[in-house]
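Re: your question about GNAT family N-acetyltransferase

S., sorry for the slow reply, the queue was backed up all week. Below is exactly what I fed in.
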Amino acid sequence: MVFPEIKISDAAQVGRMLGASWESASTPFIRLHDDVAISHVGVLEIPMQLMGQNIIAGGIHAVCTHPEYRRRGYYREIMKEVLDYCNSRYDTLVLTTAQPELYQPFGFRVVKEHIFIAKSDSVGSQGFRLIDTSDPNDVKLLHRLLETREPVSNIVGIVNEKAVFCVNEGRNPLYYAPDLDVIICMEIKDTQLQLFDVVGTRICTLAEILERINIRIQEVAIYFSPDCLNADVQALSHILDGDSLLMVRGNFAAEGEKFMLPRSARC
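Result:
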């Protein structure tokens, strides 16, 4: 009801089918009216690498109140409970939003993000196949790589996280390169490659990815810091989807660096 454009029920069902449900990963804070949930804030744990250091961040997600019960203070009450819960557990909280004004009173601040553009003139050979999320062997492969993945970036990267990845990317095409043993989250629009995540025990270079795409690529847009890709890039200030602002509360070691929190890890 609150987020119809993202079809969150469908995304959550995909996460369950992939064996990484939000119900098992999220701690819900809820207000009820006659046993019906009317306001909710969820807290997820997101294992991250920031500037080469591993941390567990708290991810604030699915913040919503039933339209008929808004402006009664439920959201503020729940957020106070959430912060009391998180303050003793996490030094860093993250969320993404199109409405930063809702979170600034609670100590959250917007952190600038960047997209990275690389020029190319590449035509490779066919080296990827689509992951079949209905195939148990492919689901097992996905779990193995998510559990053992190397961070896609030493500036801001994700390690051993499944629930947010499966909800965010489970409905999108996932490409597997058997010889590299990596799963790539990518889209191709005309001659531009859009690169959203690389999941593997070794992060391959951009050249290795391009060598396995059998159409001409003239530009690559990278939606995470490409420090591990061995690529010549130009960094540009960017807001994902035009309104998905990253906000943090507490320590965030990568603040001031050029990076983007991967789409697969945004909540």
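The chain has six helices and 14 strands. The chain has two domains: 4-111+240-265, 115-237.

Happy to talk it through on Thursday.
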